[in-house]
Amino acid sequence: MPPVGQSHPSLILGLLVAAQVLGTSVWFAPQATDDLAELAGSSGKAPLILATQAGFVAGTMIFALSGLADRFAASRVFALSAAMASASTAALLLASQPWHAGCLRFLTGISLAGVYPLGMKLVVSWFPDKAPQALGWLVGALVLGTASPWLLRAVTGSGGRAGAIIPWASTAALLAGLAVLVRGDGPHLKRSAGISWRGLAGAWASRQYRSALGGYLGHMVELYAFWALVPTLAARAGFSSPWAVFGVVAMGAAGCVLGGHLARWTSPLAVARFSMACSAACGLAWPWASEWPPWPAMALLALWGSTVVADSPQFSALASAACPRDGVAAATALMVSLGFAVTIPAIEAMAALESTRGPWVGWALAAGPIAGLALMGTGACERGKRPPNAIDNRVFLNSNNLNSSKASNNQRQL
Q1: What's the pTM value of the predicted model, to 2 decimals?
Q2: Nearest to 316 by CA among 219, 242, 232
Q3: What is the three-state SS of 362-391?
Q4: 85-88-91 Cα angle (round to 5)
Q5: What is the mean pLDDT of residues 50-55?
Q6: CA-CA 20 to 30 A from 178: which of 16, 19, 157, 359?
Q7: Domain containing residue 87
Q8: Measured distance CA(217)–CA(131) in Å, rounded
Q9: Could you give phi then psi for residue 385, rounded to 5 degrees?
């Protein structure tokens, strides 16, 4: 690859975004198949989704406690994790028992802990002065990767056959690892000794960090439960095509990118609050909107899909800005682990509610962002009201990761 100075920033960002799309395509791949639903039994594909979420929580804790993501080159960790995610996904075609598939999805979740967070770390290592915007693109890429199995189902006309969807998703993850391995780490990323417990304690003492964490947890109660229910919600609106499911989930990518740019002119806090309010409003309106004519109902689902995840990158920026310099890595790892942990009971509960209460599940989904807004209160960082040690471009980077003599001139206020 060309040296850093000879590589256009847009090309680097484009490659990393594409790698994130490909690498996360395995996340919801089983949900777009029918074969694996039959293998999972009467409970459908929910156990496979829950196993993936549990694996991701375990993986984030493993990476955080071991310091693997800081001791070794982030691009190599990403590449190895993507290869493991690819292999464990491809092995689903050989699974003959529900517990086989569940174990494989757990391994995939662990592997994804080295793809999604490490992808964020790599992007900021290349663009430390544009963290909110770059993270908006990265989370948007995660959304597209999540939606991509439905796109594969639509364009291949596979009718939900795992043999036509799983190999494509597995290959995509492998290509993601190769692309990042070739590109390598950014110039602003250096290795460190690992997690700092003192830094974590300092982060927890920050009211701003706890406010951002509370908002993030409320957001996560809704997000993955909503994504898991999109096929059912779209069917209630009169659209059972995989194109409809892909469109609703993929709208979140546009929301993340737009939110990242808006955060530059307003603040991450304003974007996060607006997104949560919009997604909550969509959930509250769903019991009546589901009875609307198909196209208006789908329009509301599309709005819901675009706002349900647009606040995610902004919470990363808010939390990291509230941490002391030696607490960013530990605090963000804690936030991600807790956030994905709450998705497990949320997915289970929302699926049960939808099957018994139908469209009134929208109110239960709306409870997540409403609670998040209440937990945030006024404590999250606003423009001009930031802790003295907060630096924007430290998102997912440790305090020693930046060459301060070069990077400090590029820092921007949130």
Answers
A1: 0.84
A2: 219
A3: HHHHHHHHHHHHHHHCCCCCECCECCCCCC
A4: 145
A5: 94
A6: 157
A7: 4-402
A8: 21
A9: -125, 65
Record the tokens describing residue 376, joined without a space: 């945030």
Alpha helices, DSSP H only, in 67-97? 68-71, 74-90
Whether the pLDDT of residue 17 is over 70: the answer is: yes
Any idea what the CATH number is for the domain that residue 361 is in? 1.20.1250.20
Question: How far apart are the C-alpha atoms of 76 and 178, rounded to whole Å?
Answer: 9
Domain count, the chain: 1
Does residue 412 lie in a domain region? no
In a domain, 285, yes or no: yes
Mean pLDDT of 4-12: 64
Task: Output the pLDDT for position 185.
Answer: 80
193-225 per-residue burial string, b: 16 or more CB within 10 A, e: under 16: ebbbeebbebbeebebbbbbbbbbbbbbbbbbb
Q: Using CB atoms within 10 Å of the CB of residue 42, give its burial: 0 to 12 exposed, 13 to 18 middle, 19+ buried.
A: exposed
Average pLDDT over residues 8-25: 86
AA letter at 87: A
- Give me the mean pLDDT over the 259-287 stretch: 93
Residue 287 forms part of a structural domain: yes
Q: Which residues contact 142 (CB under 8 A, 6 or more apart)?
A: 20, 21, 24, 116, 119
In this prediction, residues 137-144 reach a mean pLDDT of 89
Contact between 375 and 262 (Cβ < 8 Å): no
Contact criterion met (CB below 8 Å) for 412 and 129: yes
Q: Has residue 391 got a pLDDT over 80?
A: no
Which one is predicted more confidently, 44 or 168?
A: 168
